Write a sequence for this structure.
């Protein structure tokens, strides 16, 4: 009983701190699965300033690549995604928080041969996402979302391995959380 | 609007109800691929089932068309070869399983059904004694031939001498094909933008079920390529791919180049063609054929014929 009570008190204290009016910088690991093509993974950072729609408006950046996914030990094309994004998180005090996100960035793939020098291998990225973020009683956060990329290749323009529909999952840690 | 989103919208709208099949369409019950009525004009195995020694040693080219197409897709090569190389090699035009007949028959076919026509003709020719057999495939046939290689089909039989791929599809240009399984219930079919004349040789309506089959085949082949495919010993492969292609994404050529090795571990040959046509070797019934298109076709036909003789 005493141990359980102590744990509850510690958890509540931590939870209170996590929901305080502090800026947040969530840094973590991102996995991206294009529906019908590659699994990619990389890194992501997501920042909210306490004076600017604290914990609701976030700005972030991600890098993810098939080099850390489908292209590891296989013949899949090596491709890199560099993305900046802004997100709006709803239900500020809740554990499960829906969010909307707009991404922009740059995509590049490596065809590894001069034969393909005339093929498009890079493209801008412009995509929308909707998903859920799950808060824990620690600075840990898990977000999953589905996105639609407007700049996917279509055989006549754009990179052929940039697919329109994707799922992403990010596991992050608030590195400026006060304890 | 972005093409893929537009395509999705068209698919959903177009898929409602039954297809409006007109009498002049291959989809109906009045027009059939001519090889169904007179196979001897198309299949070497029917035309020359008992070759003499000289004929058996003559190169044979099995010509295999793409998804929704018919033997028409390779008719131009056959006509060209009859004029330019009348005695140097034989041709055999196959009709993929499930194709060339009615919409309903096509709708019920699977990708495994499609490839049976390839193996049937190959086995019959080998049994008849032909010793120098090659393939030319366009679009989906390339995926079918690759799947046969990966499945070890040629391990216990005579390997093909040459394989030529023209605008092979591994990744579709319309990426929405990858979610056809998810949106399937909303779809019945999609419509192709064929001309009236082309509607006699290509299905106008593409059943959603066959699109799922195509997607299934492409997923298998893409995985195979990721893991690596090795050609049978003695088999050469050359890929010809349009730089822009509204049907088979040109990056398909990259996946083939990275994913296939000869039996000696060497890279395969790939040539990117300055064209924006899908299956650029078929120019009949196309509008606005340019001199460049003609030159591309002639150059590829010539190269195939030359390699068959080597």
């Amino acid at each position: 009983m005493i141990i359980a009570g102590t744990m509850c008190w510690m958890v509540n204290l931590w939870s209170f701190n996590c929901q305080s009016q502090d800026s947040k910088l969530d840094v973590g690991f991102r996995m991206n699965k294009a529906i019908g093509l590659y699994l990619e993974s990389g890194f992501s950072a997501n920042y909210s300033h306490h004076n600017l729609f604290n914990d609701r408006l976030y700005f972030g950046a991600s890098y993810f690549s098939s080099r850390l996914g489908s292209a590891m030990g296989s013949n899949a094309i090596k491709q890199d995604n560099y993305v900046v994004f802004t997100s709006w998180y709803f239900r500020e005090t809740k554990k499960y928080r829906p969010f909307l996100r707009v991404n922009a960035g740059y995509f590049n793939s490596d065809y590894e041969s001069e034969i393909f020098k005339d093929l498009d291998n890079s493209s801008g990225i412009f995509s929308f996402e909707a998903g859920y973020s799950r808060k824990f009683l620690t600075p840990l956060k898990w977000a999953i979302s589905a996105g639609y990329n407007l700049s996917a290749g279509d055989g006549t323009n754009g990179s052929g391995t940039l697919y329109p529909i994707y799922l992403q999952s990010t596991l992050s840690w608030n590195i400026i959380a006060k304890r | 609007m972005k093409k893929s989103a537009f395509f999705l919208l068209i698919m959903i709208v177009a898929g409602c109800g039954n297809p409006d099949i007109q009498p002049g369409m291959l989809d109906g019950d009045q027009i059939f691929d001519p090889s169904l009525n007179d196979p001897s004009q198309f299949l070497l195995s029917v035309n020359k089932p008992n070759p003499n020694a000289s004929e058996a040693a003559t190169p044979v080219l099995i010509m295999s068309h793409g998804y929704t197409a018919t033997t028409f897709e390779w008719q131009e090569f056959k006509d060209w070869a009859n004029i330019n190389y009348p005695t140097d090699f034989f041709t055999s035009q196959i009709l993929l399983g499930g194709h060339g007949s009615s919409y309903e028959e096509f709708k019920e076919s699977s990708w495994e059904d499609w490839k049976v026509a390839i193996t049937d003709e190959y086995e019959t020719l080998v049994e008849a004694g032909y010793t120098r057999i090659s393939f030319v495939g366009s679009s989906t046939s390339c995926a079918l031939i690759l799947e046969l290689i990966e499945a070890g089909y040629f391990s216990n039989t005579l390997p093909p001498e040459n394989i030529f791929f023209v605008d092979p599809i591994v990744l579709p240009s319309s990426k929405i094909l990858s979610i056809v399984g998810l949106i399937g219930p909303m779809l019945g079919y999609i419509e192709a933008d064929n001309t009236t004349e082309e509607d006699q040789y290509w299905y106008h309506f593409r059943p959603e079920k066959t699109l799922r089959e195509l997607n299934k085949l492409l997923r298998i082949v893409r995985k195979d390529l990721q893991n690596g495919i090795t050609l049978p010993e003695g088999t050469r492969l050359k890929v010809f791919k349009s730089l822009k292609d509204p049907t088979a994404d040109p990056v398909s050529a990259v996946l083939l180049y990275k994913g296939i090795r000869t039996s000696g571990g060497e890279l395969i040959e790939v040539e990117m063609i300055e064209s924006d046509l899908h299956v650029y070797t078929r120019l009949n019934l196309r509008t606005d054929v340019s001199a460049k298109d003609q030159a591309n076709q002639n150059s590829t036909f010539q190269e195939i014929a030359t390699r068959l003789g080597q």
Observations:
- The radius of gyration of chain B is 19 Å.
- The beta strands of chain B are 60-64, 90-93, 133-138, 162-166, 189-191, 205-207, 229-230, 236-242, 260-261, 269-273.
- The domain at 25-309 of chain B is CATH 3.40.50.1820 (Rossmann fold).
- Residues 208-227 of chain B form the longest helix (20 residues).
